[in-house]
Design a protein that fits this description.
mainly alpha
């Protein structure tokens, strides 16, 4: 057992997972890190506009980008070096074109919307463009096994964002929603420009190729539905809580949910390193290695969840960390189990990405989103917050079962096992 653990700890996959995990923790932790500051200096209305900017930015990514950045990781294993550069450059051209079209539409609609919403929407388009250029480069770093370069670009974005935030804090006399949005957009633009320079110097800019562009869109466009459905499952229940219950209930549930989904952070960090390795193993038909890693991953996810639940249980019982909140351990357990199945679903979903079955995957996710909506609508008035947690569990189990069933279904098998 000890020899196996030593072997795992020395593997490239493990080392890359540690780097991606550290990077993911820093990048994803910024909202939590600066939350006390924002609550101190911003009025509720301005903080609401910051949330509007954040959510709209997430929504525009699959709509304007058609999720084509997702295709980079997959087609790296199909194309030779030169064709791959042509493929990536055409995705970047598409992002520039769609950003221009989006800006024109916003400008035409500006007379019908409030000035602050016009400015925020425009900033969201700018953020989308440069952020997706950076994400394209980071995808290449992942498939080329360059986690250190990935780390450098992520850290640079974080440093610039926080540096501009600190600068404005010391030099502004009053604060509104721009205090958070401007640093975020500025950091994205600067890092995006650096990514463009990196692309140019690496010979990535080629002429327009309709064939490659069409392949990218066909592969990725179904993922628009997939990503939007994911947003519904992740944050949709918040709106139902506000409608049926109270803001206090939302706060209590949000804390329990964040603690329960900690296993998702573990798997997301692992998956950043695993996807390129998985695609390579699939290409070389090394299915036995995939099955072995699946077993280790499943066990690791379950053990980590048990560890989290145990730690949170002790914290609730013996500390005053959550003194202001009524955090229900039962909710944490339900959400944690939900994210065990969610992580397993993501592992199996990689087969669909590799075999370019993104349309089927999107319909599975849509079905889970509809289940979440129906269960919340029907049961929140009856059992309150438990309805939200159980809806998350049921939809996650639904997705996991379906990706496994369709993967192993007769002649329509997604892969060999």
């Amino acid at each position: 057992m000890i020899n196996k653990l030593n072997k795992i700890s020395k593997s490239t996959l493990f080392k890359e997972s540690i780097i991606y995990g550290f990077t993911n923790a820093l990048y994803s932790g910024i909202p939590i890190l600066i939350l006390p500051l924002l609550l101190k200096v911003l009025e509720p209305a301005d903080y609401g506009l910051v949330e509007f900017y954040r959510n709209l930015s997430l929504l525009l990514t699959p709509i304007l980008g058609l999720s084509t950045v997702q295709a980079i990781t997959r087609f790296y294993f199909d194309l030779d070096k030169n064709d791959f550069k042509v493929f990536v450059s055409n995705i970047i051209y598409l992002h520039f074109f769609n950003s221009i079209i989006g800006s024109i539409i916003i400008l035409l609609l500006s007379v019908f919307i409030k000035p602050e919403y016009f400015y925020i929407t425009t900033l969201c388009v700018i953020y989308f463009l440069f952020n997706q250029i950076t994400e394209a480069l980071l995808s290449i770093f992942r498939v080329e096994k360059k986690p250190k370069l990935y780390l450098i670009f992520r850290i640079l974005n974080i440093i610039l964002d926080l540096a501009f935030l600190a600068f404005l804090y010391f030099f502004l006399s009053s604060f509104d929603w721009t205090y958070r949005v401007y640093p975020n957009v500025t950091a994205a633009v600067l890092v995006g420009i650096l990514a463009l320079i990196f692309f140019y110097r690496s010979g990535y800019f080629h002429k327009l190729n309709k064939i490659f562009l069409t392949k990218a869109i066909i592969y990725s466009s179904p993922l628009i539905l997939h990503m939007i459905s994911g947003y519904i499952m992740n944050i949709g229940d918040r709106f139902f809580i506000l409608y049926f219950l109270t803001e206090k209930d939302l706060g209590n549930y949000a804390v329990a949910y964040q603690l329960g989904m900690l296993v998702n952070f573990l798997y997301t960090s692992f998956n950043l390193a695993w996807v390129p390795t998985f695609f390579s193993l699939m290409k070389n038909e090394q299915y036995h290695k995939i099955n072995k890693i699946r077993s280790i991953t499943y066990v690791g996810i379950i053990l980590f969840s048990i560890f989290v639940i145990g730690g949170v249980s002790l914290a609730l019982k013996y500390t005053s960390i959550f003194g202001k909140y009524n955090v229900d351990l039962s909710l944490i357990i339900i959400v944690s189990v939900a994210y065990i199945f969610n992580s397993m679903y993501k592992f199996e979903a990689n087969y669909y990405f590799y075999n370019k079955k993104t349309k089927k995957l999107s319909f599975i996710t849509l079905g889970a989103a509809l289940i979440t909506i129906i269960l919340n609508l029907v049961f929140i008035p009856i059992i309150g917050l438990y309805a939200c947690a159980l809806a998350t569990l049921i939809s996650s189990l639904f997705m996991y079962l379906l990706v496994v069933i369709y993967k192993n279904k007769g002649n329509e098998s997604i892969t060999k096992t």
